[in-house]
Design goal:
- The protein has 327 residues and is an alpha+beta fold.
- The protein has helices at 3-25, 42-45, 48-57, 123-154, 162-168, 217-232, 308-318, and strands spanning 35-39, 72-76, 90-96, 101-106, 114-120, 170-171, 179-184, 187-194, 197-207, 242-244, 251-257, 260-271, 277-287, 292-301, 322-323.
- A hairpin with a 2-residue loop joins strand 8 and strand 9 (197-207).
- Helix 3 (48-57) runs parallel beside helix 4 and helix 4 packs across helix 7 (308-318).
- It contains seven helices and 15 strands.
């Protein structure tokens, strides 16, 4: 082969390589919500490492009445990473090799995507890496899934949130399938009908001093939501109302929404003197400029369905809230 032919072939190879990279970067991801492809060889998956992954990433979701995993894990051998699995939305790659690392990449093979690389020379090194970084990995994947779901919702027909803006001076991205079922003085209730059940979003505000950050916070939040149920949320049967299920202790944590300190409460509700129940997620957002706490809660009634992804939809909607400037 003479020099001219070699240069032409090299140039063609480089062009094909660049085009291939461009196509790879624009590849769209696939997969269901809260699904994670775990790229790991069978020998490691069937041992301590696989057990650790299942214990951490498929642990039961807090606040649901039945056990459902945080993520649905699907395991594939490492050789499949170069094939069709590279377009999965969430990927955790685990390899036993000389280089010990934990690396989180965005959109490495496709878009949008989170890819976590975990490797170590020994099984113990890999186990330590999983143990020390499980919360970080879970949060990164959940944040990505929330954003993806919010973008999907934006692409649907959206609810006119004029009532929410007028009453609370905030706006959210809510699908049009949610219909307003109750408009109180400082309360709004929207409901979406689904097969054999429904999803609900409620809004209300309370004085800033109503909730303090101390060892009584969870009891205070529970008492407030029970009082809201007494006033506004009743069943079809007389003398029924929503309460926080007393046999199930709610989970309290702190987070930030729209850069505001927020109390996140997860638990179960039930209808007093009736048989209806389900999970709820309650966000009490501390809004100091407006001297109030804005509470946005999502709850669902879906007795014959898995509830993890239904509650995740409500969480994504609530976390889309934007506080508007005073007029």
């Amino acid at each position: 082969m003479n020099k001219a032919h070699f240069l032409i072939l090299l140039l063609a190879t480089l062009v094909l390589s660049c085009n291939s990279k461009e196509e790879k970067s624009t590849l769209e991801t696939s997969g269901k919500i809260n699904e994670v492809a775990v790229i790991i060889d069978d020998q490691l998956w069937n041992g301590e490492i696989g057990d650790s992954m299942r214990n951490k990433f498929a642990a039961p979701v807090l606040g649901l009445p039945q056990e459902e995993p945080v993520f649905t894990l699907n395991q594939y051998p490492v050789k499949l990473l170069e094939g069709f699995m590279s377009n999965s939305r969430n990927i955790i790659v685990i390899k036993k090799e000389a280089k010990s690392q934990l690396r989180i990449e965005k959109n490495e093979f496709a878009n949008p995507q989170v890819v976590v690389h975990i490797s170590g020379e020994t099984v113990q090194e890999i186990l330590d890496s999983i143990q020390n970084n499980d919360s970080l990995i879970i949060n990164k994947i959940k944040e990505s899934e929330i954003k993806i779901l919010q973008q999907k919702i934006k692409g649907d027909s959206l609810l006119d949130v004029k009532k929410i803006i007028e009453k609370f001076n905030v706006k959210l991205t809510i699908p049009v399938k949610y219909k307003m079922v109750l408009n109180g003085k400082k309360f709004l209730w929207f409901k979406k009908e689904i097969t054999s059940g429904n999803l609900s979003l409620i809004f209300y505000q309370i004085p800033l001093s109503s909730i303090k950050d101390n060892n009584k916070t969870i009891n205070r939040i529970t008492n407030i939501r029970d009082s809201i149920g007494r006033i506004y949320i009743h069943g079809a049967v007389p003398h029924t109302r929503m309460i926080t299920e007393p046999a199930f202790s709610p989970y309290l944590s702190k987070t930030k929404i729209y850069n505001k300190e927020t109390f996140e409460t997860k638990g179960n509700w039930e209808l007093l003197h009736d048989f209806m129940n389900g999970p709820f997620i309650n966000y009490a957002i501390v809004d100091k400029p407006n001297n109030r706490i804005l509470v946005i809660e999502g709850f669902c009634y879906a007795p014959s369905k898995q509830k993890r992804d239904l509650m995740f939809e409500l969480e994504a909607i609530i976390k889309s809230v934007q506080f508007l400037k005073k007029k």
